[in-house]
Write a structure and sequence with these properties.
Layout: H1 18-22, H2 30-53, H3 59-84, H4 92-106, H5 110-123, E1 141-142, H6 143-148, H7 151-160, H8 163-176, H9 190-214, H10 216-240, H11 257-263, E2 267-269, H12 272-277, H13 284-289, H14 298-304, E3 313-315, H15 316-321, E4 327-329, E5 334-336, H16 338-344
Parallel strand pairs: 1-4, 2-3
Antiparallel strand pairs: 4-5
Helix pairs in contact: 2-3, 3-4, 3-10, 4-9, 8-10, 9-10
Length: about 350
């Protein structure tokens, strides 16, 4: 008998690319997508109809219903988001059509937002490419850059990143005012610029028609609280999944897609009800690893692959507390607050 104790070991199998693990989950199912549209748009329209039907509801009831409608609107935005990645339907034309309709409800010009968001996916958490202007929700500056600012500029930047300003005051202004203009669209992109004005025209016409039917004061009382609440929730969701204490930022030579997805994006572990309303966007590391996954496949992909469960995890309470992290400290390789940056100066 020949001994095999000294036989050479079989070569180690190469580690699969993490993106390859997501491939089985990236094909959308049209029936599931349609069901999600029905429940999301149906729920939103039903709550809005109830708000309009109530004769003189107390303020607390208006705010409670507005918050519920905002939850449905956030879910509609996630559908729009998937359509922007062409991951919600197999058909490209269906993605573009549904994305445009969702953009009318979220008051977001779909084509313009789609280009901006694609830019985000190319540069997120990249220190050398963050000044492009497309990453308006998740960008930051370094501690060194902040200290080099003059007093007035430092004050202005710190004020703009205050949690009340960044997470409460600015989001409604972005969706109600900034998105009404092709603010960063080159003039050569005339179709995209036209889509912004088309969105404005349709939204404006809807407001006029509703105002004539039920009164403009009623339209304001119903729609403004909804869009304000939804914008605050949505901007917080996208920002906290990149600007949290344990995230990583890299210079271009050291930046990789896989590293940025798994360590520059968080796993925001929300309660089941909030996970439903936010369309599983808490599995943000999976989404960045492969944007072609429809939102209803993200959780299954995460749970089936232990290799994909190493992203920084944030619970709801912890995630709310991470709004104070605004600066990247290159020396300590972590996000810090303004107070921490001041103490270390």
């Amino acid at each position: 008998m020949t001994s095999t104790s000294n036989a050479p070991a079989a070569p180690a199998r190469p580690r699969p690319r993490l993106r390859d693990l997501t491939a089985p989950y990236q094909t959308p199912t049209d029936s599931e997508s349609i069901a999600q549209i029905v429940t999301s748009l149906g729920g939103y329209l039903a709550v809005c109809a109830a708000m309009y039907a109530l004769p003189e509801p107390p303020l607390w009831l208006i705010l409670a219903l507005a918050l519920l409608a905002a939850g449905f609107l956030v879910r509609i935005f996630i559908i729009q988001h998937d359509c922007g990645h062409e991951s919600f339907f197999r058909s490209r034309s269906a993605n573009l059509a549904v994305g445009f309709v969702c953009g009318l409800l979220t008051m977001t010009p779909f084509q313009s937002w789609r280009r901006q968001h694609a830019g985000h996916h190319g540069i997120w958490n990249n220190l050398d490419r963050r000044q492009s202007g497309v990453d308006i929700y998740s960008s930051c500056i370094t501690v060194r850059e902040y200290r080099n600012f003059g007093r007035r500029r430092r004050f202005a930047y710190r004020a703009s990143r205050h949690p009340i300003v960044a997470n409460v005051l600015l989001p409604p202004l972005i969706f109600l005012l900034l998105y009404r203009f092709p603010f960063d669209t080159p003039k050569a992109r005339w179709r995209e610029r036209r889509s912004v004005y088309l969105t404005d025209a349709i939204v404006g016409a809807a407001v006029v028609v509703l105002g004539l039917l039920v009164g403009f004061d009623k339209v304001l009382l119903v729609q403004v609280p909804i869009i304000v609440a939804a914008s605050i929730i949505g901007v917080w969701l996208f920002s906290v999944q990149h600007r949290f204490e344990a995230t990583i930022w890299r210079r271009q030579p050291n930046w990789t897609h896989e590293d940025a997805a798994m360590h520059g994006s968080s796993h925001l572990d929300l309660p089941p009800v909030l996970r439903w309303f936010t369309g599983n966007i808490g599995f943000h590391h999976i989404h960045h690893l492969n944007p072609k996954l429809p939102n209803y496949r993200l959780r299954a992909c995460h749970e089936a692959n232990p290799e994909l469960q190493t992203a920084p995890r944030l619970g709801l309470r912890r995630g709310l507390g991470h709004s104070r992290y605004a600066l990247w400290d290159e020396d300590r390789s972590r996000m810090v607050s303004f107070a921490e940056a001041g103490r270390a100066a």
